[in-house]
Amino acid sequence: MLNYDVLIVGAGPAGSSAALEAAKNGADVLLIEKKKIIGQPVQCAEFIPKLLLNEIEISHDSIAQRIKGMRTYLPDGEIVESCSPGCMLNRSVFDNELAMKAADKGADVRIDTL
């Protein structure tokens, strides 16, 4: 029987971040993901404000596009504009890299767990 201190379900950004932090702090971590490939299919794009880019490690490969602002079209026809600079992530790459960072710190990462 395998024993872990922490079980995390889902290898999206939240789950992989939790696994990474727990493993960094010495916990025996099991991170399980039901999908065969972490980060696929992509659920959505991910905007990261420029201020956060200095706080978290993001590889160049994870950045799909740097932006100066964005325009969001809502279902009711309203348009919301933002002048906040940042970047859009390639979620497939970002999610996978984050899970692999957790594995590098000792987390047991398992995919295709259904």
Can you describe what's shown?
With 114 residues, the chain is an alpha/beta fold. It has one domain: FAD/NAD(P)-binding domain. Helices cover 26% and strands 28% of the residues. The chain is built from three helices and eight strands; from the N terminus they run βαββαββββαβ. α1 (13-24) packs parallel to α3. The longest helix is centred in the C-terminal third of the chain and has 14 residues, at 91-104. The mean pLDDT is 93.
> Structural class per helix/strand content?
alpha/beta
Global mean pLDDT: 93
Q: Largest beta sheet, briefly? A: 3 strands, parallel
What is the CATH fold-level name?
A: FAD/NAD(P)-binding domain
Share of residues in strands: 25-35%
Helices and strands, in N-to-C order?
EHEEHEEEEHE
CATH class: Alpha Beta
**Helicity, in percent?**
25-40%
The number of helical segments is 3
Low-confidence stretches: none
Shape: elongated
CATH homologous superfamily heading: FAD/NAD(P)-binding domain
The N- to C-terminal Cα distance equals 19 Å
With strands numbered from the N-terminus, the spatial order across the biggest sheet is 1-2-8
> If you compute it from the alpha carbons, what radius of gyration comes out, rounded to the nearest whole angstrom?
16 Å
Number of strands: 8
What's the structural domain tally?
1
Level-2 CATH architecture: 3-Layer(bba) Sandwich
